[in-house]
Amino acid sequence: MATPLAQATLGDLPVPTPGYDRGAVTVGIVHFGVGGFHRAHQAMYLDALMQQGKARDWGICGVGVLEADRRMAEVTTAQDDLYTLVEKHADGRREARVIGSIVEYLYAPDDPEAVLARLTAPTTRIVSLTVTEGGYHRNASTGEFDDRDPAVRADLDAAPGTAPRTTFGYVVEALRRRREDGTGPFTVMSCDNIQGNGHVAQSMI
Predict the structure, then answer these.
(1) Burial 167-203 (b: 16+ CB within 10 A, else e)
(2) Which of 53, 58, 40 shows the shortest CA–CA distance to 97?
(3) pLDDT tens, position by position, 67-110
(4) CA distances for 135 relative to 17, 21, 58, 193, angstroms
């Protein structure tokens, strides 16, 4: 019978697991769109640094905004935010290891204020994105912001303090709150495969 992946079973697994105290890792990055690309790259590199005794204040809080993200929320909760990464080498060898750098996952529709609290925390210094090209609501013909999505319209028309419905709605509301309370801004870091992704994120926001 396979051993379920959880914090309590790490010592029973036949693959490398986090050798650091995940309870001592603090969140420094909030990431929207926890998919395969994020887990195989950004989260993996941070885990490698944590294994070296570094970056313990750069733990990741993943956030899901879409209905399709509910399944990810269920899985991460069941596995204490742990997952197994399998790396395939050029010679065909496969190496598996458990990644522990994601220390929290929030499903925004269930608790918008928890997401905003994490975004406005002074310890949050980066908000990173892998939300696909469509997640930027950029008109392919004009390059301008496309506000026809009902969720986008709801965010644009909402009164200040209203729970957002989109990724950019959360980013803007969090920055508004941080400005009001003097916390200061965070860095928005686009990790999507879009030419000039940082500039696109800046202009769309």
Answers:
(1) bbbbbebbbebbeeeeeeebebebbbebeebeebbee
(2) 40
(3) 999 999 999 999 999 999 999 999 999 999 999 999 999 999 99
(4) 33, 34, 25, 12
How far is residue 93's CA from residue 47's CA, in Å, rounded to a whole number? 21
* Residue 128 contacts residue 29 (beta carbons within 8 Å): yes
Provide the CB-side half-sphere exposure for 74 (13 A, CA): 5
Can you say how many angstroms the Cα of residue 79 is from the centroid of all Cα atoms in its chain? 17
Dist CA 146 CA 121 (whole Å): 30
**Residues whose CB falls within 8 Å of the CB of residue 101, separated by 6 or more in sequence, listed in order:** 25, 43, 44, 46, 47, 50, 58, 59, 60
Among 79, 177, 159, 71, which residue's Cα sits nearest to residue 120? 177
